[in-house]
Amino acid sequence: MDDPTLTDTPVNTDSNANTVALVKQVTEIGPDIAEISRRLGQFKESVRYRYKEKLVRRGFAVKAEPDYGALGLRRIVMKLGVSDEFRARAPKIFETMGDLSYLVAYAGTMPNDVFLAQAAVPAEFAAEFHRFMGSLKERGVFSSVELFDCDVHRVAPMRADCFDFDDGVWDFDWSNAPPLDERAARAMISERKKVDKVDLLILKELSKDSDRSLMEVQAAIKRINGVDINYKTLGWHYARHVLDQRLVSHHTVGWHRLNYDFERGEDVGFARYDYLGVALLVRGLRGKESIMLRSQMNRLPFLWSEAAGDAYFAQLFIPLSMANEALEHFKKILKPFGSRAELLLLDKREMKYFTICYNQWDEPNERWAFATEELLARLEESVLKVR
What we know:
With 387 residues, this protein is an alpha+beta fold. The protein folds into 4 domains: 15-56; 73-152 and 353-384, Alpha-Beta Plaits, CATH 3.30.70.920; 156-188 and 272-349, Lrp/AsnC effector binding domain/regulation of amino acid metabolism (RAM) domain (Alpha-Beta Plaits), CATH 3.30.70; 196-244. Helix content is 34%, strand content 26%. It has an 8-stranded antiparallel beta barrel, surrounded by 4 helices. A two-stranded antiparallel ribbon has the order 1-8. A two-stranded antiparallel ribbon has the order 6-7. A hairpin with a 2-residue loop joins strand 12 and strand 13. Helix 2 crosses helix 3 (44-54), helix 4 runs antiparallel to helix 12 and helix 7 (197-206) packs across helix 9. 37% of the residues are buried.
């Protein structure tokens, strides 16, 4: 029989509890309905129906999160002021940087109109990236550039146990937050693995949408990149490299319902109720401050992502109905850090993320590349020379 027998597994009649269990499995292994059915001891039809009804149709996009450490990429967080001359072209500049120079995300902020950006840069080119950003400042693109090298970065798994999937609302008591999450706070960068261009193309597509078959991934690579990869070759790379080497850290469930269509180049997210986007930045961390801060932040189900090194950076999305409580909570957490701490409101109209910078892979030499002068020349040609 295809479906597992249920004789050894008690049937849970709590609809929300079943969805929570489903989400935890999706986070770990992706939307593999057959395997989730086996693990949960439930019929595939039931699991598939719940997945479609409770997640897909409500706009909870499921995407693979690449293990950047395994790919040899380190996170650099940036706080950038765009000069008045280039302000109107800021989105185009960032999009070009996403294509050429390892930028993976940016967001405008309010009310001070600075940008927070993130790059996933090959570890061996971190210093070169700093020089590259300094060159853009010298050219007048940026009025200010502040960079923070991070030892760790992660997108937090959804705290499904804090969400009521039947009613579509969060069930969270700010006065009784979950215990400190020291395990998450101590997560470090993974060991670097040997990868190739096919692996990167697969990861690129799965990070857009992991709810697709390998045949669909193959067709997307051919359509977008003009690379016709034999299906058996693709399957071998997926099984032996992507899965066996754990090049995907986990799968994200987009509970904030902010979704970007890479094909159409536009936001397609929707929300039953909206969220307040917030970023926290704490500079000059000393001693155990990083561990304690991360432990505090990982208690919150609204944490979307974080990065930490000499500084700490977090992105959160707070239901508007909880905004006052959240801001009071942040005030208490950040008070010990004084002027080193900063809270910024995110402008979701100017927010975008990109896939890994696969086109900067030097295929003949099987390594990442970073040619500063060439990148500056291409930026100059595409977006900077138009004044």
